[in-house]
Amino acid sequence: MTNEYDVIVVGGGHNGLTAACYLQKAGKKVLVLERLEKAGGGVWTEEATLPGFKHNLASLFHGILHLGPVYKDLQLEKYGAEYIWPDAQVAAVFTDGRCLVFYRDLEKTCKEIARFSKKDAETYRQLATNFQVVVDNLIGPWFFNPPQPTSLSATAMETSVEGLNMLRMQLSNPKNIINELFESNELKSFLLAFIKEFGGSPDTYGFGVFVPMMLGETHEPHGWAICKGGSGNLAQAFVNCLEDNGGAVKTNAHVKRIIVDGQRATGVELEDGTIINANEMVITNLEPHQTFLKLIGEDKLDPSFTNSVKRFRHEEAILFTTHLALDEPLKWKCSEFNPDVNRCLGVLLVDNPQELYDDFADISKRNLPEYPRMFTAYPSAIDPSQAPEGKGTAMGWQYVPYNLREKGPEGWKEVRESFAQRCIDVWSKYVDNMDTALLKTYIMSPVDTENKWISMVHGGFNHGEMTQDQLTIMRPFVECSPYKTPFKNLYMCGASTHPSGSVGGACGYNAVQVIAEDIKMKKKWWE
């Protein structure tokens, strides 16, 4: 392998691959270094339970990817990432035998909401229609552009009542906004339970922006989609694109050190001692603590910048995931109320908003939730290729504390099996056939996730806490402009930068925009 490249990308997650593909197609000679046996980060599929059962170990829903330019610019469908948009998107199921199903079709959704509240159905129809415009013209560009200074973006919104309302939502939390807008507990439960999957508690200030996003993104022409054959096919599509354009990915390549000389990064050293030189730049897809404190070292950093890196907080409420291999698809008890629940991609297990608040109250006390209120998903119901014929796959996400009250992170070794069983017991109350259908489980506690993908510190897919002081231009720190570092040719492109986690390639794409300006790239092929 050549030991000299124009650009070295440390970390082969999808944002690193995004940046690599854009720069390779711009004429740079690019190498991506990945610690694991294959690239993709959380965009990962494997037969973790039994042969033929494909499990998406982290990322499954890919909606943001299709809001921005990355999927089309890089021709990822051509390279093997084909997407399926289910008509029946997500449902909430209730213990009284009813359910609320959301469809890509807005009118079908509003008819379902009207079964619980006609007033809410009218409100939802109007808001979803309005917020679709907001998603296309405000939220989409917000994701796929480097962040503007807070004062500038606020000034732009302050010129109209509509703008001020959007600013208010952005600064507020989902709990406040949903309670303002709707009356039905069932609809409130659905919306709050779904929005929390973006990475935070319903009372997290700054998370209000995800209310208009969720309402505007769920319905046609948008929607939540899955990659045919598993999320791993998206990762492979990125790799195919990079290699087809002359770039390279080296797997099983654990970077030991980012080599710096003065204010420049000159290359990297691998664990085996191999030195690879970077003629133009190094891009890190890793979170700040690993990049600066471990791979560069405090002795190479200004003390004030070191303090800024240490100040960056990691997530404490983390997803615990239980993957199921099923002898047959699960059969919902509420299917008489609406049979379409059996063909939904996602199903929320929640009866009222207070249950969600109780979950997060337990988490804030560093206790495991007593009655897990999971988000469950059924890839094989949408894409039969992800399980053997007649069989099924499912997964359950439940927020939990990383740092357990009694024994800290080490305590997960003792409780992971019993907590997975607690989740399955709750799940079983909503279906008729869990006992006969369940073949095998595969568990990922926060510690399991952190051990597999080391940049997901504490197991968090956002690489860092999502709070107002760690968003937009303050993500991950204020001492450097977004995506830049104290080293002139070292850039960041991971989920610790704006706009953070979720699969869309936005962090990598935005980093490339900044790089293109810095190096005065004459022709941006993607424009």
Can you characterise this structure?
This protein has 527 residues and is of the alpha/beta class. The chain is 35% helix and 18% strand. It has 18 helices and 18 strands. It has helices spanning 14-25, 70-73, 106-114, 118-143, 150-157, 161-171, 174-181, 185-195, 210-217, 232-244, 288-294, 303-311, 353-364, 379-382, 412-428, 434-437, 446-452, 506-518; strands spanning 4-10, 30-33, 45-46, 55-56, 83-84, 88-93, 99-103, 226-227, 248-250, 255-261, 264-270, 275-284, 317-326, 346-349, 375-377, 392-401, 438-444, 490-492. Strands 1, 2, 9, 10, 11, 12 and 18 form a seven-stranded mixed beta sheet that branches. α1 (14-25) runs parallel beside α10 (232-244), α1 (14-25) packs parallel to α18 and α4 packs across α9. The protein starts with a strand and ends in a 9-residue tail after the last helix. The model has no long low-confidence stretch (mean pLDDT 95).
